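Case study B.
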Amino acid sequence: MFNKALTRRPSSRFSEGITSANLGKPDLELAWQQHRDYNNALKSCGLDVTELEPDEKFPDSCFVEDVAVIADEAAIITNPEASSRKGEIDSMIPVLKKFRKLFFIESPGTLEGGDVMQIEKHFYIGITERTNENGAHQLGKILSQYDYKYTLIPVTSALHLKSVVNYIGNNNLLVSKEFISHPELRGFNLIQVEDDELYSANCLPLNNKLIIPKGFPKVKSQLVKLNYDLIELAMTEFEKMDGGLTCLSLRFLQTE
Ligand code: CIR
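Model:
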């Protein structure tokens, strides 16, 4: 269960961010609208949402998930690989200090939160162009102090692990073709996302609901059959910048 989320409104330089999507330039007004709808969806799932001010220095700074990993006992400030994103951590440190003891991923380790998937006491860490083994082991060792296990998962087909693998509760994992017979994921119910709906592999489970991107009918019908209580959100402007539902927030449980 989560009761708290941090988000950051896209800055006016949002369209200058990194992307490989080839879907054209995002419309800033529409991105703001979609971001407002996103915040409201989080609130409707019972989360208290703190919307941080846009950080005009960093076009990708609305993708707050990448700059920190939050466990119940600690927050780990990442070291984004993308040079245009490294400085995003500066404004997140004072925010997270209020909630958790902080740890830091140090160079030459790199790590981005989009590569980190928690399933109860186990963290799966994607090895990608953004997260290297050094960074992944730094994270794993910090978490091991709190009795978490961790597994490294090389990813070849996507920006981040969570672009293509996401835990949606009830032992169910949404996965792309690359992961359908992955040895580390045996034991989960794997729900395959077809290549033509790949973007919808990134869904966001929040308390008893599941937020999914609008416009992916095959994935939606599989989830309806599994009785998920769905919230659909238009995400077109974030998809143009390679960002999905999970990237737009940091979620955690705050007990005091
Ligand atoms: C980037 O390339 O870094 C951003 N344009 C998108 C980051 C998406 N974040 C995520 O998947 N966790």
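Residues 72 and 150 are 16 Å apart (CA to CA). The remaining cases will be described in the next quarterly update.
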